[in-house]
Write a structure and sequence with these properties.
Helix content is 61%, strand content 0%. The chain is mainly alpha-helical and 110 residues long.
Length: 110
């Protein structure tokens, strides 16, 4: 974040492009499940988005996409690590067929 703050509009294009590639690589590899890394990633994105005087629109988009993909991947892996190994478990009904056919909450059957 601080390095992105120190870039100047007069910095040459190849150096900024190399910096963008490095940021994209770092954001791809970071772990959003770690709170400190996630907050630093978010701060970096905010800083980059505010520096349209240094970064091109496509560079900002590339950096943001690298962050978002990593964040989404972290959410996916977090769900798998939390013991949700059965992805269809979410779709199971909250009741079984026998309770539906019988007495529901004291109501008379049809």
């Amino acid at each position: 974040r601080y390095v992105a703050s120190g870039l100047m509009p007069c910095d040459d294009g190849p150096a900024v492009a190399a910096f963008v590639d490095l940021m994209k690589t770092l954001l791809t590899e970071y772990s959003p499940s770690q709170l400190d890394e996630r907050s630093l990633g978010e701060a970096l994105i905010i800083k980059v988005e505010s520096r349209s005087d240094v970064f091109t629109e496509s560079q900002i988009k590339g950096i943001t996409e690298a962050y978002e993909e990593s964040f989404e991947r972290g959410l996916l892996f977090q769900g798998l690590d939390d013991g949700a190994s059965d992805p269809d478990g979410v779709l199971e009904p909250l009741w079984d067929d026998e309770s539906v056919e019988g007495d529901i909450g004291g109501a008379e059957p049809w």
